[in-house]
Amino acid sequence: MMPGRQPMIDQAKILLKNVFGYDTFWPFQQEIIGHILKKKDAFVVMPTGGGKSLCYQIPSLLFEGLTIVVSPLISLMKDQVDQLRECGVPAVFLNSSLTAAQYRRYIEQLRTNTFKLLYLAPEALLTPRVLDLLTPLKVDCIAIDEAHCISDWGHDFRPEYRKLLEVRAAFPEAACVALTATATPRVREDIRNSLKLDREFVGSFNRPNLYLEVAPKEAPREQILKFLKQYPNESGIIYCFSRQQTDNLAALLHGQGYSVRPYHAGLSEADRTQNQELFIRDDVQIIVATIAFGMGINKSNVRFVVHHDLPKNLESYYQEIGRAGRDGLPAHCLLLFGYADIQKVKHFIQQKAEHEQRVANNLLSALVGFAETDLCRRIPLLRYFGETSAREDCGMCDNCRMGKKDLADITIPAQMFLSCVKRTGERFGAGHVIDVLRGSRSQKVLNFGHDRLSTYGIGTMHSVRQWRHLSRQFLQRGLLLQELEHGALQLTPKAWEVLRGTETVLGRLEEGTVRLTPREEEQGSYDPGLFEILRKKRKEIADQTNLPPFTIFHDRSLREMATYLPQTRVSLAGIHGVGAAKIEKYGDIFLEIIGQYSDWKQG
């Protein structure tokens, strides 16, 4: 680091605490901020909730001039600007949501250096009118958020992002920083080449506060209703494959008394905007959505994300679960996995050009491998993004939390199942094989004459559920391959070793007993009664100021208040995310509530 820059880093640490309310930098933040303060370019890859925004927001407060932030969605800009203003940071956006009078006023204020950060969509930044406005100004930094939109190898490609190199040329003295949470090695290379960025900072893709669970999709509606009982009055997103499924599930949940709205491309723009806004403001707790929902959501207190259906690939899955737990508190990510869903994804893949089909099929295979693994789920997930340092036991996925039962010898059930796969011609999926093993009189079994096989009815000692659990283990252990197009099971060379009796298979006959989920472990760590009172006051203030509640205080801040019961402004300043501006605005209100609650508890 250059000798003259150390004081600026010291100032950055002061801003971190006084403005944003955080005690220490997260991994890479200080290094990245020091790099940008030297007016050097950077490409930053950090997980959602990992503090990417601070990497350019803090330098913007230390630079003399303006920082331009390229952001893809109006709703995302508004949330970020609202949060910055609540922290006392002079920030503004220019987009079509402003009135003509507001737009003119903000332009005049930009000319007088009133603002430190300006948020713009790439389309707006590229217009001659905006470039003419900005060219005379001192621009010290250009931050390109959601930078994966630059790459046509990414999942949210936007052609306008490709043209941002032209903007860089217009401001040669400005540092350029591109940031994203989701990028495979190939996408990262494409971004660096497109923007001519030499230095890359890649943090871990691991989101340790997300509990990852994959459950067999058996009765999805009942499974979701049971799941939601763990999270009363909490915010969450449920992703569905189709518009019809989205509407039907939203209607079911509404009928069960849940605060819920649908979101998909079949709704009018006005309805989509309203439903999203209600969700952001905690007026609606649950959104049931297709993948059209989420990119512009900066809501920090999403406590769960459920995939009713299989996502397109691991990148989409990672992006969608990334909407949970942005405040750093535990969040639950449940994927309901059924082999029938693979056929739906395959149908859409078949509509693509031949070379695109091969890529899509490989991506689907990686997703299925993640769903079927009996290893720590973070191992295949992080490996997909080029990260190989995952621990063998993360403690925050269903596989790692499985009860530590000794593995049993399941060689005989394996021989039964594998033999039945072979005798039915290796043409059928697990469901049909199980029907044969259990002696089903289904029309399909009878039509193929499989009631006359030697394996017919030999597996009645195990339930359908047990056989399905066993079949997944046989796939995971490499005894079977599944033909993705039709779901047919085929034996591998390793399976023949098992059939010959030269290979033993260890596994579990029953689903393991999962230890406490993060939600259950949290109970008792803070006072839930006080938390609810603080949350209601936050919502009341948010409604009065026309802001989303999480811009007032994050859930993590409220939970720390409900844990440590601060009694003074000084002790309140020690709470995560509580900076000087928020203490000035809201400190006395929340301290009074905490004091009254403490007096009541003490009798």
Mean pLDDT: 87
Number of strands: 17
What is the CATH top level name of the largest domain?
Answer: Alpha Beta
Q: Which CATH architecture of the largest domain?
A: 3-Layer(aba) Sandwich
CATH superfamily descriptor of the largest domain: P-loop containing nucleotide triphosphate hydrolases
- List the strand order in the largest sheet: 3-4-2-5-6-1-7
- Whole-Å distance between the termini? 57 Å
Q: Any idea how many domains? A: 4
Assembly type of the shown chains?
single chain
Low-confidence stretches: 1-5
Query: What is the molecular shape?
Result: globular
* Helical stretch tally: 27
Please give the share of residues in helix: 40-55%
Structural class: alpha/beta
Compute the CA-based radius of gyration. Answer: 27 Å
- Strand content is 5-15%
Query: How is the main sheet built?
Result: 7 strands, parallel
CATH topology-level name of the largest domain: Rossmann fold
What does this structure look like?
This protein has 27 helices and 17 strands. With 603 residues, it is α/β, with parallel strands linked by helices. The strands form 4 sheets. A 7-stranded parallel sheet has the order 3-4-2-5-6-1-7, with helices on both faces. A 6-stranded parallel sheet has the order 8-13-12-9-11-10, sandwiched between helices.
